[in-house]
Design a protein that fits this description.
Mean pLDDT: 92
Structural class: alpha/beta
Shape: globular
Oligomer: single chain
Largest sheet: 7 strands, parallel
Number of strands: 20
């Protein structure tokens, strides 16, 4: 983590080997008129240059002039959100679709409101640029008390809050080093795949300065390189470890995406012949059409027969794993460290040792694919014990709709032009069982698990992936947290399909620890969305209680209403949950309720 503060640090010379160097673009850039040579224009151009076409924003008096410059930038669209939390969630979803996202809010009241979303993006390793309109540069160091603060002449409260959930913080209150501060912040977000914080004094965006007299020179971000000797040693140690095993397997983890190693993982899977699984938070990062794909490895709630093969293996290679209480089902994994090769984005550990640093995952997996001996034993064992999943029992005419019937129909909707957003809750488990066609996107927030994330994330993801029709599965409790930005989806003319699963409360919490606090006030959800629609934009809603109504609703949503935002409220029994949630909830509950260690 690093922080740059203009008024304190003072002007700085550009470091040698600066990042803002020409790549495939010409070295010269067009000069700007003095009226255009502003910091606001430079920041806007930088955002467009790195791939941001949409900025999710909530206006406030400290960021209004900056928003003017963002609006004026060709190729950049400002999307006003209903609140800062949703703006942050939308930037999170956008970063998942486009590789980088951005949001803009006002000082402290906006910054602290968006903070939860930024923390979630940090936990999920997403490059996100959080821009905050800050106090007038003349107010720094004056001992003045400003509005939107807690009433103290200290403007660093917001900065201190962001320091733990961003990898770089820039406080731009001095034009002399604003160019360097902005460029360093944005490049750091891209290099580290983490959020950054940029505070811009409200009186600076429209002021011209010589450092902004030309368009920003495109970044040239040198890729991190593996230590070649270390890479060769790591591959050699791993080959010896894996080749002496009888039934090795390989498992993809969520950091596969950060390392941009999906193709290398598939290359190794093909060369090794190993049975392949994914951790739940890596679903969608590996093609589920790979020849020896088993499904999701999630301990006791894994895809059928997957855990048995993985945990009985005498060697397993995990690429980019995160082992926490949720992914390990309350620390109940039956894995042994001495059997594992753990490949992180820049480090490889073989069994209990040795460990090798400065090794890029992509390089390591590709090199290993050239050396490893093919071994299909684990997959052959899987084929011997595998029994295909059964279909849910047929519904009687008019029978109340079961959740497993809903997801049977969701499965039929998926194509390579689809994407799935799964909200925290039972949708985690039901969506894990979906078989994704090649090209089908899949996103959920497992590490942070903030309920309500999916509404804003759906807004951002759909805005960034306009070539896909996004299907979101959201529980009623989660929807109540962030429902307002359905209105922003309508303003953006999105055509996503939302399945609102109305089962009367926080079902995932019920299965961990029940109590009256898990029951929520029922809303007329279709009526709420119709009120938000208010005749402006394209929106269609339906409420379904049985399979016949569900089938008709899906047919309409995918047919005559395919260009509309479609909101389908699914009425489900409060106890209708996946068997995986029941198992997972009891194990997480047991982990949460462990007594204190003896003193």
């Amino acid at each position: 983590m690093d922080t740059g503060i203009g008024a304190v640090d003072g002007p700085k010379a550009a470091p040698s080997g600066a990042l803002a160097c020409p790549a495939t673009f010409p070295a010269s850039s067009s000069p700007a008129s003095s009226a255009e040579a502003t910091m606001g224009r430079h920041l806007a151009r930088r955002l467009v240059q790195v791939g941001v076409s949409d900025v999710f924003a909530v206006p406030g008096d400290f960021n209004l002039t900056l928003l003017d410059h963002l609006i004026a930038e060709p190729g950049l669209r400002l999307i006003g959100c209903c609140n800062e939390l949703n703006a942050g969630y939308a930037a999170d979803g956008y970063a998942r679709a486009k590789g980088v996202g951005a949001c803009a809010v006002t000082f402290t009241v906006g910054g602290l409101s968006v903070l939860n979303a930024i923390a979630g993006a940090y936990s999920e390793n997403l490059p996100l640029i959080c821009i905050v309109g800050g106090p007038n540069s003349n107010d720094y160091g004056t001992n003045r008390i400003l509005h939107h603060t807690i009433g103290l002449p200290d403007f660093t409260q917001e900065l201190r809050a962001f320091q733990t959930v961003t990898c770089y913080q820039a406080v731009v209150n001095n034009l002399d080093d604003a160019h360097e501060q902005i460029d360093k912040a944005i490049s750091t977000a891209l290099k580290e795949s983490k959020p950054v914080y940029i505070s811009v004094s409200c009186n600076l965006p429209g002021v011209s300065h010589p450092t902004f007299s030309r368009d920003p020179v495109p970044y040239f971000l040198s890729p991190r390189m593996s230590n070649q000797m270390g890479l060769e040693a790591a591959v050699e140690a791993t080959v010896q470890f894996l080749d002496k095993s009888v039934k090795p397997v390989m498992v993809a983890g969520p950091k596969l995406s950060v390392a941009k190693a999906g193709a290398a993982f598939a290359e190794l899977a093909d060369a090794s012949g190993y049975a392949v699984a994914t951790m739940p938070s890596a679903k969608g990062m590996v093609a589920e059409t790979l020849p020896r794909f088993l499904g999701t490895y999630w301990g006791a709630v894994s895809t059928a027969f997957c855990a048995e093969i993985v945990e009985s293996a005498d060697a397993y290679l995990f690429a980019g794993p995160i082992f926490n209480d949720y992914s390990s089902v309350g620390y109940s994994f039956l894995l042994k460290k001495e059997k594992a090769v753990i490949v992180q984005p820049d480090r490889v550990t073989v069994g209990n040792g040795p460990a090798f640093g400065c090794i890029m995952m992509k390089d390591f997996l590709s090199a290993l694919a050239q050396r490893v001996t093919k071994n299909t034993t684990a997959y052959e064992n899987y084929k011997r014990i595998f029994v295909p999943d059964g279909e849910p029992p047929e519904s009687e005419p008019g029978e109340p709709l079961r959740v497993n019937v809903l997801f049977k129909h969701v499965q039929k909707m998926l194509t390579g032009d689809s994407a799935v957003i799964a909200e925290t809750g039972d949708s985690w488990f039901n969506c894990q069982k979906l078989k994704l066609p090649d090209g089908c996107g899949y996103e959920f927030q497992m590490q942070y698990g903030s309920i309500g994330w999916s509404v804003g994330a759906l807004l951002g993801y759909a805005q960034g992936a306009k070539d896909k029709r996004v299907i979101a599965c959201i529980g009623d409790g989660s929807f109540q947290v962030t429902a307002q930005d359905v209105s922003t989806m309508l303003r953006c003319e999105q055509n996503s399909i939302i399945f609102l699963i109305n089962n009367g409360g926080y079902t995932i919490e019920v299965e961990i620890h029940d109590g009256p606090y898990n029951v929520i006030k029922n809303w007329n959800y279709t009526g709420l969305v119709d009120a938000i629609h208010n005749g402006e934009g394209k929106c269609w809603t339906a409420k379904v209680t049985c399979e016949e109504e569900l089938t008709a609703a899906i047919e309409t949503a995918t047919g005559e209403k395919q260009d509309c935002l479609c909101f389908i409220e699914v009425i489900a029994h409060k106890d209708d949950t996946s068997k995986e949630l029941l198992e997972w909830g009891s194990r997480v509950s047991a982990a949460n309720s462990r007594p204190p260690n003896p003193q």
